[in-house]
Write a structure and sequence with these properties.
The chain is of the alpha+beta class. The protein contains 3 helices and 5 strands; from the N terminus they run ααβββαββ.
Length: about 150
């Protein structure tokens, strides 16, 4: 059985890699241009540092998205797991509310997706659970029941 939920996430990540790469290229170009025009000016030193910093941030963000894309891409080739593993789509029931997560190693900010780090308290509680398993309440957190794995 295919891991359809991960394939949906993978499509979004492919687009996000393109957007992040373009953002990095634009920031790098801007930093290079600012560096050239501000080379002899003390007053433009702040602009030079700012644009270089923005390029570094964009490069790091691109790297994180690529890591997550690669993580998900490898997982889509694996069979559907019987228990929550990393990476994995998980639907849970918490206090009569159904919540959908993607349990991953490399978390990035994506709108419309709840990515949960495998190292987070929630990630640790979910890992290894099977459909129908519940996790007892700990440190004030409600019980979590696993409804679907993908």
């Amino acid at each position: 059985m295919q891991r359809k939920k991960l394939l949906i996430l993978l499509k979004v990540l492919e687009k996000e890699v393109k957007v992040s790469r373009k953002r990095f290229e634009n920031n790098k170009k801007s930093a290079d241009e600012t560096s050239k025009t501000a080379a002899g000016s003390w007053s433009a030193g702040g602009d030079r540092e700012y644009t270089a910093g923005q390029a570094m941030i964009a490069k790091k963000a691109l790297g994180q998205v690529v890591k997550l894309r690669d993580e998900i891409s490898k997982a889509t080739k694996l069979p559907l797991p019987e228990e929550v593993s990393i990476p994995c789509y998980v639907e849970t029931k918490i206090d009569d509310k159904y919540i959908k997560y993607y349990l991953v190693k490399n978390v990035v900010n994506l709108s419309d997706f709840k990515l949960v780090s495998s190292g987070s308290p929630l990630g640790k509680r979910l890992e290894g659970k099977k459909i129908g398993d519940s996790s007892s309440a700990k440190s004030g957190l409600s019980g979590i029941k696993v409804i679907e794995i993908g």
